[in-house]
Every structure is written in C-alpha cells, then in structure tokens.
Design goal:
By secondary structure, the chain is α+β, with helices and mostly antiparallel strands. It has helices at residues 3-48, 90-95, 150-201, 217-276, 286-321, 333-344, 370-386, 443-453; strands spanning 50-55, 61-66, 74-80, 85-88, 112-118, 121-130, 141-148, 329-332, 352-355, 365-368, 392-400, 403-410, 457-463, 467-477. The protein is rod-shaped.
C-alpha cells in the first residue's frame, strides 16, 4: 500500500470515528431533550390526576379519572385490581384505547416508563401504583399516563437517517478529496524517486529535482536531495578525475620506467654474453672487452640513478595525494637563499649562473619547511639549467605588499604559450625537449605541491626562443621568531 493511500486511509478512519461520535452526540442530545421533556410532562400529569367518585343511575358508585390534562395527545387510565375495572379518561374513550395492565404483584417493581404500541401507534407510558381507601390489596390500583410519540419517533428516525447519510457522504467526499490532495502533496516525492532511479540506472549526476512549491517538509527534503546530488556529482567528478590521473600516472610511470629497465636489461645481457664467451671465440681484444664492460656498467649505474630519482619523486607525489603535510616553522630567507645560491653553482650546467642582491632579504621570514623550500627552488634552478644550453640563469628576489617573490630567470629555449597551463602536470614535458634534455616530468609537479602547501603561488612568463621567468610568491612572516 502506497504512502498516500495509507495517509488517506488513516485520516479517513479518524474522520469516520469523529463523525460517528458527533452523530451519536447529536442524536443523544436530541433524544434526551425530546423524550425527556415528554417524560417530565407525563410524570407531572400523573401526579396531578384526581380520582373522583361517581354515582350511576342504578345507585352503584365508582371512581373516574378527573383533573385537567394538558394537550390532546395525553391518555390516562386507572385499573382497580379488586373490581377488575378500567376507568379511562375522555381521550381513551374517544380513540377507543386500552393499555396492557401490569400484574398487581409486580407493579411496584415495574413502576416507571414503558414503550408500547397499540393499533400501529407508539406510546410512551408512565405507570405507578395507587392506593385507594376502601379497596383491598396493596396497591389497590395502577394509574397509567401515556402520550402519543409518533411525531417524536418520526423526527428521531429522520434525524438518524440524516446523520448516517450525511456522515457517509462526508466520509466518501473526504476520502476522494483527501486522496487527490495526498497525491498532489506526494507528487514531489515521485520526482525524487524518478531522479534517484535515473541516477541508479545511469551516470548523469547533473540532474536536479525541479520544485516550485512552498518550503515545507517536502521542499526541504527536495532541497536536501538536490544538495546531496550536487555533492555526489562533485565527489563523482573528483573520483573520475582521480582515476584518470591515476591511470595517466601509472601509464606515464610505466613508460618512464620501461626505458631504464630496458637499458639495464640490455647491458646485463651484453655483459653476460661477453663474460661467458671463450677467449678463442671472441673477436675483441681484452682491452676492448674491458672498455665495453666499463661502459655497460656506467650505463647501468646512470639508469639506476634515474630510476631512484623517479621513485623518490613518485613517493613525494604519493605523499601529496594522501594529504600528508610537513612541519612548518619561521624560516629566515637570507641564509636559506644564500645557501641555495652557493649549492646551485655546483649543479651541471652550460649557462652562466648569476645571483642578484640578496641583502634585502635580511630580517625577512616566511612560515614553512626549509628542506622542502630548498627542494622546490633546486627544481626550478635545475630546470633552468637544463633548458638553457647557453646564456644566463639568474636568481634574485622582489617584494610586493606582504609577499616575497623568488625570481628565477633564464635565457634558454622558452616555451610556447599553449604549453604553460600543462607544465605542472605530472610527466608533462614540452615536445621539443623530449629526448633532448634529461628528466621525467615530475619536478614541477612536486614544486607546485610544495608551493601550495606554503600558501603561495607561482607566476610564469615565457617566450619561445627567448627564455622563461618563474616567480614563486610566498607570504611573509614580518615578525622574526623570538630567541
């Protein structure tokens, strides 16, 4: 059973109970007022009845019911048990009525009101015992005062029919309109179900539930579902991007690892063949074999170093992907930059190395990790040396507002403007440099991660054939650390 049908059934059932209780209350109120007044009237009339003697023409005497009776529909009769005689009033004689006589022994217990029907007419009868002096028995007689209740009975029957038919019609109308309103109120839930089914059977998380109704419980539910769909879309998109990056990373890493492994395997196979060859079968002299062995071992050593660098860089990026951070503390800029400039002069290079005025960094601090900052700067400097076969590489610093900019400028081969957005992607290298310069394309990705972790940014200015300038902007910590 659907929710709307259950809701309709519930409030229809509650309405039916309320209508039944209200109808019973109305019917009981009208019944008590209608018959209660009549009972009080009969009882009062019965107490006002006079029993008067009468003498007949033959000299016999008896009693008759006297006194005034209000209304024409009241009837009174007196039954004397000793004489077995009925003494009626004029109304009884006019309509030729005679009520059932109760037994003398039980009249005391049967005193009160009874309902009886005579000749198809209903009457409400009040009967009570009467003691008459001069007559035997106790009680001597019974007085019965009655009223015709046909009009009251018809009124109550009409009232009962009206209440039953009206309640039933109201219940049917309430159920019909309630089902319509419940369907209308629950229609947004159907949209939620359709959207959820669409998401379950497809991959489109961009769909949203359109709702222009009031911000009631359903409106808040739909708003929550739309918000949840937005977050799911973001998570799904991020997950897809992460999977794509992971697949690209694994593919590029496999490609980069294949070359050194192939070189190492080829040199090992060559050495194995040379060392297993008999001297009389070899066409090379001992000196040539020795020289070839040295070259093969050197190639193996170089490729091993390259693989070590690749694995170290991949571990650094793996730490970045897992959200791992490093300890930070105030770092003095001038000593760190002076040390970087000195050590950079020993890197392999063909270009001239120039260091600008670093004295302006005296007393300036940044909040960071010294080791990672040096690693980041060596990545940019080493790249500048690699892509500057001749010319000059310069290191200096500039200030702007509350930031320090570490500027590394070269006069090397430069880059095309279309390549700039991709230089920080993993394993990306400019097409012109592939196979010409050493590297695996992970250095700038690591440098970008270090810059982001320090709350900085990087600015790139380049022109193909004229050189490249990198400016690493880092927030300054103006107050020096306390000693």
């Amino acid at each position: 059973m659907s929710i709307r049908l259950r809701l309709t059934a519930w409030y229809s059932g509650i309405l039916a109970i309320m209508l039944l209780a209200l109808s019973a209350l109305i019917y009981g109120f009208v019944y008590i007022n209608t018959y209660g007044d009549l009972k009080d009237r009969l009882k009062n009339q019965a107490n006002q009845i006079e029993l008067q003697p009468v003498t007949y023409y033959d000299g016999s005497s008896n009693l008759y019911v006297g006194g005034s009776l209000e209304g024409q529909n009241l009837f009174a009769q007196l039954y004397i048990y000793d004489l077995a005689r009925i003494v009626p009033n004029n109304n009884m004689k006019t309509f030729d009525l005679q009520f059932n006589i109760p037994d003398q022994a039980t009249i005391v217990s049967q005193q009160g009101f009874v309902r009886e029907s005579y000749k198809g007419n209903s009457f409400l009868i009040y009967q009570r015992p009467v003691d008459i002096p001069g007559y035997e028995g106790n009680p001597a007689a019974v007085l019965q005062m009655a009223a015709y209740t046909g009009e009251q009975d018809r009124l109550m029957l009409r009232l009962k029919n009206i209440l039953l038919v009206g309640s039933f019609a109201t219940l049917i109308a309430a159920f019909t309109f309630g089902l319509f309103l419940a369907r209308k109120a629950m229609s947004p839930i159907g949209k939620v179900i359709e959207a959820a089914n669409g998401i379950q059977t497809g991959t489109d998380l961009s769909s949203r539930i359109v709702y222009d109704g009031p911000q009631d419980e359903i409106g808040r539910l739909i708003e929550t579902v739309n918000s949840m769909l937005g977050r799911m879309e973001g998570f799904y998109t991020g997950l897809e991007e992460a999977y794509a990056t992971q697949r690209r990373f694994v593919s590029d890493a496999s490609h980069e690892l294949r070359t050194p492994l192939t070189t190492i395997r080829g040199n090992i196979d060559l050495l194995q063949k040379i060392w297993e060859m008999e001297p009389e079968d070899s066409r090379m002299t001992e000196a040539e074999i020795r020289q070839l062995s040295i070259e093969s071992v050197k190639d193996i050593a170089d490729e091993s170093k390259r693989m070590s660098r690749l694995v170290a860089d991949m571990l650094s990026l793996a730490r970045a992907d897992t959200g791992r951070t490093f300890d930070i503390e105030p770092v003095a800029l001038e000593p760190m930059m002076t040390e970087v400039a000195r050590r950079a002069s020993f890197l392999p290079r063909q270009a001239d190395w120039s260091v600008g005025e670093l004295g302006q960094l005296n007393g300036k601090y940044i909040l960071g990790n010294k080791d990672y900052l040096q690693q980041m700067m060596f990545i940019f400097i080493d790249n500048a040396f690699k892509y500057t076969p001749e010319g000059q590489v310069t290191l200096d610093a500039v200030f702007y507002q509350n930031q320090v900019g570490i500027r590394i400028t070269d006069t090397g081969i430069g880059m095309d403007k279309d390549e700039v957005p991709h230089i920080f992607d993993r394993f990306y290298r400019a097409d012109e440099s592939r196979g010409i310069t050493e590297g695996i394309g992970l250095g700038l990705s690591i440098a970008k991660w270090i810059i982001d972790e320090h709350g900085g940014s990087v600015e790139v200015v380049t022109r193909q054939g004229e050189g490249t300038t990198f400016v690493i902007w880092l927030p300054l910590l103006f107050a020096p650390p306390l000693e």
